[in-house]
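Format notes (please read before filing issues)

Several people have asked whether sequences and structure tokens are stored in separate files. They are not. Every record keeps both together, in the order shown below: the sequence lines, then the token lines. Line labels are part of the format and must not be stripped during preprocessing.
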Amino acid sequence: MNPTKRNYRATFILDNRGKEDSIEQIIEGVKKDIVAVQGEVTAVDNIGKRDFVRVTDKKLTGATYVHVSFSAPSDGPAQLKERLRLNNSVYRTFVQSA
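Then the structure lines:
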């Protein structure tokens, strides 16, 4: 049975402090995680480094923001957040319906 897919737009805040991975490599890893939850990436927009309005960690005052548009089953965003929770390179994840 093929579940119907919905369109989503996710914003990821990426943190590559102290890591050898470049931002592009981290984005490729996030795209692989989206595919792993039966998602299909349609667009990637690297916004670039932005400063945070509210700083929660004095050592991290800004990070790289990336918008990813994708389609996935209705349980895809929850599964994606759970997979990325363990990824230290993804500082925050926000997924909304498109």
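For reference, the curators noted about this record: Residues 6-97 form a domain with the Alpha-Beta Plaits fold (CATH 3.30.70.60). The two ends are 24 Å apart (CA to CA).
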